[in-house]
Protein 1
Amino acid sequence: MAASEYDVAVVGGGLVGVATAWGLAREGCRVVVLDEGDRAVRASRGNFALVWVQSKGLGLAPYAGWTIRSSEAWAGFAETLKQETGLDVCFQRPGGFHLSLSERELEARANNLKRLHNQPGIADYKTEIMDHAQVAKMLPDIGPEVVGGSFCPLDGHVNSLRLFRTLHTAIKARGVTYLPSHRVENITREGGEFRLTTAHREIRANRVALAAGNANMHLAPMVGLECPMRPERGQIVVTERLRPFLRHPVVTLRQTDEGTVMIGDSKEERTDPAGLTLGVSATEAERAVRMFPVLGSANVVRTWSAIRVMTQDGFPIYDESESHPGAFTVCCHSGVTLAANHALTIAPMIARGTLDTSLVAPFSARRFHVQEAG
Amino acid sequence: MFKRLAEAGTAVALTVDGKPVQARSGDTVAAALLAAGIDRCRTTPVTGAPRLPYCLMGVCFDCLVTIDGVGSRQACMVPVQEGMKVETQIGKREAGR
């Protein structure tokens, strides 16, 4: 193997990239993170910050187990980051709700969970359906229109902007080279090493981990991989800081450690990150007020739209290249929830040079080809 | 600390946290609070630091108060009116109030 500058080049400096880079540095690798500049379309700055378990895995049972694994590892992950950086990402796991505003919604919810749990080999994540009175015991401020919901004790949330900052602080402290404004234009493999072309210079590394979110779609084919994506847009409405009243995060609504309430309930197929559909924000806010009437008098201080990283079927893609040994994909929608897995499970695999198929085989992009699915 | 250069306008009566305060027509709520000598119009939601009106031109958001039941209004952008009820905001606002 050539004596490259770096053991691993991580392409992408968002949450997935830096969590992976941190894990690699902990394994003793010399790591470089190649990132875009400040104008990058960055999901890590727009996300909703849930560490979420319930409903994950319908259509791909192993995804439930993979999600639970990260959820279980999260507290230790946050504690280690705190020891290394002194920064608290405010991870909490009080259990979370999915609330329904009509009997029809609740019935659809219950059916979904039943289908999910009926899949062979599914991990049990203890979700239960509750009626209005049961929910009201745990969330006393729900409105009369909330007919019930589902509760999963494994659900939690963090301060995700602080997580992003903390991971960057942690990789810096561990000697990872971070290169912003180094958008990767091309990747080749020559003489046993990867050459990554950027506008500034060429970077050489023994291995490459693609963690560039939706851009993986264009990067993966350069190293004999594929990463089919379908980005979508979400919108978030943020209120002023309020005294804590919401003890549990709801999938569409949560109160942060500092008191703001984030409301995010939307999916749009459009992918213009600069726009905002006012009607979508209005609908989100209206549903939030029906769930928690006390929000009716709260002031909204910010709204934004952000592009979700989304694979074609919504499940993660972890792959290693057969034609370009040493090239890996690390790609998923849930960069916050799965951060602990990327740091503590995926990164050590990349450091060893091969993915552990007993854990991640179901997440290969080969699943998109029916011929190879058997 | 502040004193008026001239007693322009007519007298306007408002209350701040239930106590009567005399202002002058043409005052903003922020000016009336400063003229009345209050030592804080709010404390911040996270660290609890005291705040008074600062920029007086709608930019800094330090002068947020509750006016006639509506929270987090910019006192420097609202002219006083007879009978107005102003409340200081201590820490995080309570949802539903």
Protein 2
Amino acid sequence: MTQGLTRQQLGVTEAMIATYGATIFRLSHNHQIRRGDPIRMKDFAAIQRHRGELGMSDGEIAAAIGLNERQVVFIRNLEERRRFRTGHYHRLNKLGGGKRYRSERMTPFQDHFRYGADALALRAALAFEPDQARRYVEAGYWTGDTLRSWLAKHATERPDAPAVISPERTVSYGELKTGVERLAAGLHDLGVRPGDVVAVQLPNTHEYVESFLAIAWLGAVMTTLYMPYREAEFQTQLGHSRAKAVIALAEAGDFKPAATLMALKDKLPALAHVIAIGAAPAGATSYAEVAACGTPLPEDLPVPVAADPFLLLYTSGTTASPKAAPLNYHTMLSNAQAGVPEHVIDADSVILSAAPFGHLFALYAIKLAMCAGAATLLLPIFAPPAFAALIESHKPTHLFAGPAHIAACLGAGLLDKHDMGSVKLSVTSGAAVPPDLVRAYEPKLPNGRVCQLWGMTELQAGMYTRPDDPVERVATSAGRPSLGTEVRIADEHGNALPLGEEGELQVRGPSVFPGYFDNPEASAATFTGDGWFRSGDLATQAADGHVTLTGRLKDVINRGGVKYSPQEVEVLVDGHPSVMQSAIAPIPDPRLGERACCYAVLRPGAALTLDELCDYLTAQGIAKHKLPEKLELRDELPLTATRKVIKSRLAPSA
Amino acid sequence: MSSDNAEAAKAELFAYAKKRGALAVGVADLAAIERIAPAGHRPSDIMPRVKSVISVGVGGQTQGTWQVPAKAMAYFGSTETRAYACAYGMAFFIENRFGAPSIYCPPDMDNEAGPRVPLQSLKLHAELAGIGARSLAGDILLHPEFGYMYFASVFTELELPPDEPMADNPCPAPSCVDMFRKVGQTPCQKFCPVQCLSGDIDADGNQAEMHYDMAACAEMSQQYESVPALLAEALGAEDQAAREDALFDPDHKMLWYKMSVGSGGLLAQCFECMRVCPIATRSPASDPIRRRQPS
């Protein structure tokens, strides 16, 4: 409506607008050209001559082109509405205070970074319970820290301090930051953007640490591929995570990971780049070239913040239903920050992980080092002699190892042959730690203590023993909750049980993930109605807060209605001199429902019968109903990548 | 009124204006305004018996203001209301003192033409009154002594002798000419956030051409389209979340805020061309601190 009249009353049509709109816009005040200074000079002839350039009034335009003034007013206003872009005032937000506009620094708003659909889907998975989030922020557990901020801080404050140590070289924090920035920029050059998933399958090398931090620096998300993974696992995990790039070795023994991944690209539409360390196969990109990128990251790229996801780690789950835990800095770094003083780590610490970096336990060790500004000592692939020799030569103060790693070193007598005097704390986790292992290991550390840690991919370090706990407590307990973590032992209905009673270990706290990515069914089954994470572990809690794991919830044998966890029996079987590894699983029984079958791998040259085993267990004081009723001797047991026995694949021979 | 009386009245009015805070006052040549301004926007269109047009100029913002971030300056960079108050008082003063009907000239927009067409051009009045000259910065008026001012006008039936426009145009300043010779742009042209300015300087260092893309400038500084545009965006949104984003996101709520507090044209004032202008910021009396110092 113009001057009270509608478009119909004015006789303005789209044809008229199309015909005269551009002319009216051009003749109007919207574009003005002044030649010389005619008004100040009162040069009326020049003013009249250039009136069209100076910007005409609507009446003047109407007279010039043969429309009436109302039509011109209507069309000019409509042209302004259609032509003018809105939102330009945002440009002012970064100006002033000494900053001036420079066209070369200006990115049009429509060209600013935007998260991809896959990245947004992953971010959407980080849906925490609001009241708990508020509590964690108010309590100071969730802060603004990110791996990028930690690395930048150490590189600024202690640029020459050692960050990553390998037998070949020591990389300082300053050098590490430079390398990380370059690799992050190289990944960006390839097309990796904040929120994109990048998979990594590498041994514990400098490149792993650099990749982890560069992915985080860029704001992307790392998913880890365990070293034993091959085509089937690649396809499942890369497909589910929608990984955009993968960093892998060109050659790993006889296996060629990069070439294998290249061959899978057609089946993985999201996978754009395979980055190879070593001689890159055809179509793959050289890690060295990516890491040498000289182009800095664009300024408009969002700097990662603590609420952003930076890890997408896969737990178990079937091919049809992968369970991937999206983890952000709030959860992971708050937990690491709490762990630093508890594990007595400081800037002078040197941390060695025998566990592969593909596991959260080992990534926890990196985060502890990054939090404290400590050094990470690298052992690319665990082998007991190399591990023990590295401890003696490079004198780590902290070890992160699974019980199998320690058992192997103990079994080979390596801890007696090498100087372990540098070790202040050895953290063991990853599987149930046999009490005798702790008892045997502790004396091997003349200046250190053993720490037992219980964690899961979904929550990192949930509980651990403290350095001042008595050795018997360390041997028999998974520790007390980490700072901010709450635990309860619950019955099958979710009711908290009294101290000492066995039930499911349930956890709540600032490090607990919010739910699985793209798997609502698994997420729903994993949390109780009141927000507790169901660990699936059976446990008891003592009056001093220590929790002892007694088995897995689903790993229960129901013998004629009498249920028990076979874990305590397995620990005893593992202690038999003839047994190297064992697992007890149920077998169907027409009368009792289930009976226990013991699957065992014997030491070379050893022999064992069921009767001998039962006699041994009886002598250990085990209840009669828990004695295995069948013994299956195997050359090896099916293991997960984390070297846990896959009981679902155990079945007695016919 | 005799010419002597007219000169005396003029001096009295100028003294009044300066007492009320004006830095500069002048009387424009009414006949010239009537000849240059388009029909419907001439003083006689507002006040048929007008005899004189008085233009007053007040100083721009404080010296400290030039240092603040642009988003803060958008709120307090303008001092136009001080000019309006001065002119409003002068209209009363003329009627009381001289018995001549007078008006404070409305600085507002013409209802019939939309929000970008003023009833009167205060800039034209001031230029012809000799208190400012058109700059390369989109014809913003500059004064060699007072720099960058805000203007208001008084129309009166009191006949006053007109002043002449300024003999010289201070724009471009010598430093701007040097920069133009080196990089092809003056500071105002180079640092405009929407690059709405361009032009040419002749061999004598005078303005040869001034190009002003007012549409681009308006997209930044007069976002009258923003409010209806976001309503249209909300109406056409694909889903409820997008609809609510269109109406309630912080940017858009700022528009509601600015409208609700009645800030009118202050949807987003932009002062970047003046921030880098040596005349606006460093003329002898453009700086309130230096104005207070004895010369």
Protein 3
Amino acid sequence: MSETPRTLLEGVIVEEHVEFTLIELGRASGADAEQLRALVDEGALTPRGAGPDDWRFGDDALRRARTALRLTRDLELNPAGAALVLDLLDRIDALEARLRRLGARLAP
Amino acid sequence: MEYKDYYAALGVKRGAAQDEIKRAYRKLARKYHPDVSKEADAEARFKDVAEAYAALGDPEKRAAYDAIGTRQAAGAEFRPPPGWNSGFEFSGRDAGEGGIGGGDFDASEFFEALFGRQAAGARGPRSHGQAAGGDHHARVQIDLKDAYQGARRTITLRMPEVDGQGQVALRERALEVNIPRGIRDGQHLRLAGQGGAGHGGGPAGDLYLEIEIVPPANFRVDGRDVFVDLPLAPWEAALGATVTMPTPDASVQLAVPAGSTAGRKLRLKGKGIPGAAPGDLYAVLQIALPPADGDAARQAYRSFAASFGGFDPRREREG
């Protein structure tokens, strides 16, 4: 059984090759510029560049912005609360990674 | 279609005050939110809770839900009579913006029948003027081997699309995607132009695939580094041995030094997930005891014990 051949799509790894402007990150994450600015003010996002017009968001900014947006919406958190949760989640991830290195099996 | 008991989902009584419903939702949302929860079924539970709150948190929707009767049991077959919900109009507080708790969840058939798909947060694009299409997200699971070697994956997506009449319908779309070698867990792959269609000549949005690496049973992944359990016989650990070790893309021969202990990690530099700065592969040693399930085996253990008469594992325990 043969299928119609489809074009093979080549993607770009965001965390390694993409830097977003404020507007682009807004489109990609679904957050509005106001929310992103608040997350920068809280230190939850750390773009390069002097001001909003020059900001470039790299690394895991997309994941952090999306998580913050979901937390803000679903748990009705303010930016400070979302930033705190992101920090705590990072700490949990780091601790779990250490446990895994020691060979522990973690519940999913 | 299955009737959903939204009051049960939030654990409140039918007569509960709006405040009480909100409190119940927030408590459950904190417990089951997929971003913070470690519960096994967090995603499904949160979906139920969010849907229940989307219905009960809004007094108009709650009234409509209450009106379909209290006699229904959760999970029972529910057949809406024709035109049964035509008496309700919703102010559409959530529509388009994804209101509280009503953001991204895939509403059940029941919810959509009751409130319409728009209310479930399917965002209808603005149709006036020229606008770029929305960026979409999906999650893709790949094997650890795929991260080592790269892979082609056919991905089937169901995307809400607005037709000419402004109706939202789900359309299936298959994409063949090249997963690049060296991608790591949690990274995103951007496929330019594969998101929502643009309007009035505007460009299409992008599609972001969030990669989740699902390692085989004995493997664990931490960023670029990979850990694999390597069981050894006691004599292999004690005397040293060359053993065959599985790696995600091939098997290698590994020299285990004499005097190895359980938990010791042997590093294979650069054999983790590949890339400009490749990760390392660690063999985590385990000692496997052969079963003492026959006379000969038991005798072997006895003479083993006799040979180490002075050995007390609880006293001379060394790292």
